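One chain shown below:
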Amino acid sequence: MKFIVARQMPVTTLPPDLEPTDAELDAIEAEMPVVLAEVELLDALIVLLRQPPTQIHSRRIRRAHRRVLAARRDAANKTCPVPPAVA
């Protein structure tokens, strides 16, 4: 078996620890509700590719779209806190 290897040095060197930092993990955790809501919306839209649309499908898509908007709103409100003097 022949191994294929690069003959040149890599352009950028990778750090020895490729694990995400705590800040990156916190950012992923904060975005997770938005990601899950978008996956649910995508699942609802994929169903329409296989079947003709019905009233139930349109309701499911509307609900999923509302969940995406609510998750985005909640994420935006968490990242931009309102000062206590304004609230």
